[in-house]
Amino acid sequence: TTRRPSFASVFEIIIFSSLVATIISAVGLQIAGEQHELKREMNGFSKGKGLYVMALVGQAVSWQVYWVGIVGLVFSVSSVLSNVISVITWPIVSVLIVIFFKFMDDEVDVFKGVALVTAAFSAAAYFYRLHKENRDSAKVWVPQIYF
């Protein structure tokens, strides 16, 4: 069919796929016996258990808002821009985490540097193509003057 999906239907897909992924992850965590490791990590969190839970909940909510924004870009602008934004944000966020939160376990290595450069090139190529299309379309349009 040629019917376009609505924002609400895509939003439902995001929510339900996240719910299914959460359930599968929780079951896998229980089967592997990793829940004890999570408890140990929570107990070892320097700011306390409450802030550990708040950080996890905040991260989950942030990801949902991020994906709703990405889907919103598809509906309001284009799927290409949505993909460009999602490709750019992942390496930038990991570099910003290292810079601002000073994680000692995480550092900017070659892979993150290559991902950041590749993301920058993809964004530059996308915006250059837009610029070129707009410039070419401006040349094609010639007003007709009749005498």
Structure characterization notes:
It is a single chain. With 147 residues, the chain is an all-alpha fold. The protein folds into two domains: 1-77, no CATH class; 79-137. It has five helices and no strands. Helix 1 (7-32) runs antiparallel to helix 3 and helix 3 runs antiparallel to helix 4. The termini are far apart.
In short:
With 147 residues, this protein is an all-alpha fold. It is 80% helix and 0% strand. The protein has helices at 7-32, 35-43, 49-76, 79-101, 110-140.
Question: How do the strands and helices of this protein lay out in sequence?
Answer:
Blueprint: H1 7-32, H2 35-43, H3 49-76, H4 79-101, H5 110-140
Helix pairs in contact: 1-3, 3-4, 4-5
Task: Give a quick set of tags describing it.
about 150 residues, mainly alpha, 5 helices, Purine permease, purine nucleobase transmembrane transporter activity
- How many angstroms does the end-to-end distance come to? 48 Å
Percent helix among the residues? over 70%
- Seen as an oligomer or otherwise, the chain set is single chain
Overall residue-averaged pLDDT value:
77
Can you tell me the number of structural domains?
A: 2
Q: From the alpha-carbon coordinates, what is the Rg to the nearest angstrom?
A: 22 Å
The shape, in one word, is extended
Unreliable runs, pLDDT <50, ≥5 residues?
none
* Helix/strand structural class: mainly alpha
Summarize the biggest pleated sheet.
Answer: none
Number of strands: 0
